[in-house]
Amino acid sequence: MNIIERGKAFxxxxxxxxxxxxxxxxxxxxxxxxxxxxxxxxxxxxWFFSGRQRVRVQRHLCRACAKSYSEQSALLVRGxxxxxxxxxxxxxxxxHGRMSLRRTVEFVRSWLGRQERWRMWRPLDVTPAGETCHLxxxxxxxxxxxxxxxxxxxxxxxxxxxxxxKELGTDGLWTRLRGGATRVVLLLADSxxxxxxxxxxxxxxxxxxxWQRLFERARQAxxxxxxxxxxxxxxxxxLSAFLHEALAWAQHQRCVWHIWRNLxxxxxxxxxxxxxxxxxxxxxxxxxxxxxxxxxxxxAVVDATSYEQAEAxxxxxxxxxxxxxxxxxxxxxxxxxxxxxxxxxRERLPVGANLWYSSA
Length: 360
Fold this sequence. Notes:
The chain has about 350 residues and is of the alpha+beta class. The chain folds into 3 domains: about 1-160, no CATH class; about 165-255, 2-Layer Sandwich (Nucleotidyltransferase, domain 5), CATH 3.30.420.10; about 255-345, no CATH class. It has helices at about 5-20, 20-25, 85-95, 100-115, 120, 135-155, 210-220, 235-245, 255-275, 285-300, 305-320, 325-330, 335, 340-345, and strands at about 35-45, 45-50, 50, 55-60, 70, 165-175, 180-190, 195-200, 230-235, 250-255. A hairpin with a 2-residue loop joins strand 2 (about 45-50) and strand 3. The relative contact order is 0.07.
């Protein structure tokens, strides 16, 4: 099974546990016989988001095979002092909150036991009389190890058979390492399904080599190069060179978000120049007015529904007293900015008209 099928199977297994009735639990999981009787029970006291709770677990004895079994719950993890929601929340906070193990468990522990930082959040609350939560960083470390081992075992075949669209998005994340070294993490994503292909760490992104390694690694993971019809990026020169050499049939779309970010400084400078030429008492109003006018004209170009409409809007922007430099910048990137329109007009390979308004 691929990663999507495994995820669906896991959720379905939890739903199956949650939907089991008393009659369902009378069937022995070992032999399938219904010749079972209740065989006592035991109490567990796991931690939930709402605090520590007592949970009674019913046991059964099968007369056919003489084996005993306990009823299971989708909320609990066998042998754990913490409910499934707590374990998954702690792992999620560590992964996406980018905190240390110690700080992660401090927040989770405060939440569960209404203690420590909870008293900073709600200083008027009465200190609960219940037990104190002692969740430790070593416990979270063990959960992460277990999750990592399971993830490592599921790597073979995890991307096989996944649906692939014709539209991809790329981007690079720069990071500074110890010793002053810098590296960039190159990432490739399916713009429709959101699937992230295996990333690549490189020293630079302005050459074709690192981008080729990124696409080669994605092809090893199952990416069909021949099915690629469009790639969105921030305009990295290395990616442009690679696409021209290896994927000449793929359209290269400029990311609109990056275009706006590149225009931000020039737009602010142009509005400030217009305000500097006005009287001091109206300078701020002039700056806001010029900025609003230029933003509206840029939107008319970027959000055009046809290539002709974009060119007409570009002429209007160029005729604005402060719009010449902005129009020149957009004109240089117009073809790649409006690939989804130009491809249809020039009857090139089909590219979805709704794609790529943000990069990976």
